[in-house]
């Protein structure tokens, strides 16, 4: 027993972790906090807007850090994910309004090999694993890597020329940027570069959320989102893309924004995945409940949600939804088209947040007036043909427990709720429980076809410096194995916190790649990956000598992971090398590819319960 602990019976008293045990900047002192309180917007904030447990001074002291950015530093880059916003305190920065070539930002696209080069590589075995040329270790052309105040920073070469040849928006003291990506777990929409010596306050998303307790600050943030991005996000939804401008404006004005669950869901993932499916479903925040009349249309802006239907005393998973998908449209459309004398039907399924969920919710009356008339017939949800009301119009006042007592609402195949999957319930719950629905390029192996020859592993090793980027192990559900390989996730939490932006998503392919010349080997991405699919390795030269840091003499580490063999003309070497067609890279964020793949291999519900 640790010193200071006293056991009483079967209990051991311990100190509960506190909200600010780990400050964002341990070096932030009281004088800096006092100075920040003299600067806008904090000088206008009222201390009374914040609870005693999370005062304004505490937010500045623990959820913020001061940062100096010299001219030319890339502060954030378009496409990267982040968990913090930046407030300009002094100096100026420029947000580029046009895209820069990937090589200027340090994200060089791998050169596509010819078939001859690929075959030569296949037969050439490197003498030493993870060997590199010196030019591959140090950064060359493109951005420059330097140290600023003990942190790694990336600088744009000839940034003056870049600014002259590209449209940009200058941001000065008092202006905020990056808040949309921080709050809503979305990619950065612009590259921001320091144009003068700039002093910035970086605010992590937890603090940003607390600062919204100040009503004027919250209104300013919400107004910025509504005026700049809301209509863009609405138009990205197929059912809303044909709304005329006046109807779109009325929809935007009516939207209510709500979030559920923890933004950093990966922190608790290892605990929740061990829960039985029924307990896991019960622990998830409830967004909408089966058996209640729909009052709003829910559009998922970020994260994942579980669709479930009552089964006995609990719930069974019927599908899951992701970014851009809708919930409640089928019931709303059905009720809008029903004969006047027929009572409305309730929601046929429940919606729960899986980890973190961010939503836009549109009131039902606005949907009826400004959305339904403009949805194309091909995108209009199917009518629900068969259902039982269990109390008719009074179903809205009926407790869920009472609705479930008589079993789930039966539906005909033609009138199944939108989004409900034909996949077996056990498989669906397995996918959601292990967050495999996050994977856009998951490695799936049919164990009935796999002979364990390891040709896939050998091909990967040959393509990647003698060291395979995956292990032929992983979670299994019946005859399906989900190998331990990078899934190039829809919500890539590994990209959050990288100090140089070395890990990034390719905008054309969606592949999450690591650009080694600006990888500083900090291990942030490996620690953040909830699936343990990123490894840190020591690298060496072609003669087998390990690279060492010239200042500290410590080994040079690089993050390594599957890159989908972007340089190979055949695509992923693991798939091409499998002699039994047992392996596939598949998008699990959408249920359709998995169902099609199982049908093609004759795998039906009887094989996988």
UniProtKB/TrEMBL annotation:
It comes from the Bacteria. Gene3D superfamilies: 3.30.70.20, Jelly Rolls. Keywords: 4Fe-4S, Iron, Iron-sulfur, Metal-binding, Repeat. Pfam families: cNMP_binding, Fer4_11. GO terms for molecular function: 4 iron, 4 sulfur cluster binding; metal ion binding. Residues 441-469, 510-539 form the 4Fe-4S ferredoxin-type domain. This is Putative ferredoxin-like protein YdhX. It comes from Roseimaritima multifibrata. The lineage of its organism: Bacteria, Pseudomonadati, Planctomycetota, Planctomycetia, Pirellulales.
């Amino acid at each position: 027993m640790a010193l200071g602990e006293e056991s009483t019976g079967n209990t051991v008293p311990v100190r509960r972790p506190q909200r600010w045990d780990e400050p964002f900047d341990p070096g932030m002192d009281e004088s800096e906090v006092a100075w920040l309180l003299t600067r806008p917007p904090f000088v206008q904030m009222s201390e009374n807007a914040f609870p005693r447990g999370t005062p304004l001074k505490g937010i500045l002291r623990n959820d913020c850090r001061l940062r100096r950015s010299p001219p030319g530093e890339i502060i954030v880059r378009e496409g990267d994910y982040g968990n913090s916003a930046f407030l300009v305190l002094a100096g100026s920065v420029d947000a580029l309004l046009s895209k820069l070539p990937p090589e200027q930002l340090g994200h060089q696209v791998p050169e596509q090999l010819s078939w001859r080069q690929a075959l030569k590589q296949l037969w050439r075995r490197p003498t030493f694993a993870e060997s590199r040329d010196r030019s591959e270790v140090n950064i060359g052309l493109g951005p420059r890597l330097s140290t600023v105040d003990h942190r790694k920073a990336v600088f744009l070469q000839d940034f003056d020329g870049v600014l002259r040849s590209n449209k940009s928006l200058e941001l000065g003291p008092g202006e905020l940027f990056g808040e949309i990506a921080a709050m809503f777990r979305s990619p950065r929409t612009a590259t921001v570069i320091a144009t003068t010596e700039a002093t910035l306050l970086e605010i992590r998303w937890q603090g940003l959320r607390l600062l919204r307790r100040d009503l004027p600050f919250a209104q300013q943030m919400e107004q910025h989102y509504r005026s700049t991005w809301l209509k863009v996000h609405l138009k990205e939804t197929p059912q809303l893309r044909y709304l005329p401008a006046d109807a779109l404006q009325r929809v935007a004005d009516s939207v209510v924004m709500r979030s559920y669950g923890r933004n950093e869901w990966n922190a608790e993932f290892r605990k929740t995945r061990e829960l039985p499916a029924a307990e896991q479903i019960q622990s998830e925040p409830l967004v909408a409940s089966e058996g209640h009349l729909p009052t709003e249309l829910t559009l998922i802006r970020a994260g994942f949600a579980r669709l479930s239907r009552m089964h006995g005393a609990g719930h069974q998973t019927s599908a899951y939804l992701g970014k851009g998908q809708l919930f409640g449209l089928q019931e709303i459309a059905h009720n809008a088209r029903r004969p006047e004398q027929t009572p409305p039907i309730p929601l046929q399924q429940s919606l729960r947040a899986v980890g973190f969920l961010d939503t836009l919710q549109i009131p039902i009356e606005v949907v009826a007036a400004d959305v339904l008339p403009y949805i194309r017939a091909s995108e209009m949800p199917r009518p629900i043909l068969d259902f039982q009301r269990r109390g008719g119009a009074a179903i809205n006042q009926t407790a869920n427990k009472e609705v479930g007592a008589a079993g789930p609402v039966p539906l005909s195949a033609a009138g199944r709720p939108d989004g409900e999957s034909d996949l077996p319930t056990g498989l669906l719950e397995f996918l959601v429980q292990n967050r495999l629905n996050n994977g856009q390029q998951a490695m799936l192996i049919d164990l009935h076809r796999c002979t364990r020859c390891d040709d896939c592993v050998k091909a990967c090793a040959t393509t990647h410096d003698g060291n395979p980027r995956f292990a032929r192990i992983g979670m299994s559900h019946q005859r399906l194995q989900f190998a331990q390989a990078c899934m190039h996730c829809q919500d890539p939490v590994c990209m959050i916190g990288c100090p140089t932006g070395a890990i990034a998503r390719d905008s054309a392919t969606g592949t999450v790649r690591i650009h080694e010349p600006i990888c500083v080997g900090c291990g942030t991405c490996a620690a953040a990956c909830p699936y343990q699919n990123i490894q840190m390795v020591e690298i060496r030269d072609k003669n087998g000598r390990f690279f060492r840091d010239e200042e500290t003499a410590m080994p040079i580490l690089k993050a390594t992971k599957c890159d989908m063999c972007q340089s190979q003309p055949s695509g992923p070497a693991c798939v091409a090398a499998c002699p039994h067609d047992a392996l596939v890279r598949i998008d699990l964020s959408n249920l359709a590819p998995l169902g099609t793949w199982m049908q093609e291999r004759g795998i039906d519900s009887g094989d996988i319960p």
